[in-house]
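note to self — DONT lose this again. spent like an hour looking for the file last time. sequence + predicted structure for the chain T wanted, 237 res
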Amino acid sequence: MKSQYVLPVTIVVAGILIAGAVFLVGKSGTTAPNPDGTQKVAAREYQPAKDHILGNPNAAVKVIEYADLECPYCKTFHATMHQVMDFYGQSGNVAWVYRPFPLGQLHSKAPKEAEAAECAADQGGDTAFFKFVDQVYAVTPSSNGLDLAELPKIALQIGLNVDTFNQCLNSGKFSSRVQESYTEAISTGAKGTPYIIIMVGKDAVVLDGAQPYDSMRAAIDAVLAQLPAGTATTTAR
């Protein structure tokens, strides 16, 4: 069924593109570029059973980020997205969906760190997930520099049961989920991190690399301005 609205992609990109870590991949799920250079994609909608969300699950606009916990660009963009959510989150109109995309070719520790974040969520839901990711970014020097022995310490710091956390992590319970998310990112067209998608309903457009705060504000404001009356929600969490 055709969507009620189409993302104003010309405004969304705003002419500011900052590349993240790039590597070569095969086929992707992207469509042909638009005349203005933007890229629509066939992205998966938010699914509570798979995804981690900060903000209102029913938000009209979702910023989807595929990220690598050892990527320095992701570390910078993570702080930017907290600024974005501080500004928009209480309205309930914008939410942040985080999906793991560890680039094992570049950062051999990133897949295990992604699993660790899933183990945190297994105990404490999305709240624990984002607390864990926040702390990983706070302590890692990036570029594969985190000592994996820090992961249980982070779990303890955010109030998790460390024994349960270690059992989860050592068992590889979430290795297949992390790999599935990685494969999904590639199929959607990701070639580096962070891979950012702004999604409204089934419509999705890619923003290239670690966009600065002003660019994210411009993109989101442009999308919010195009929403039909009654589309926006007011229930945030």
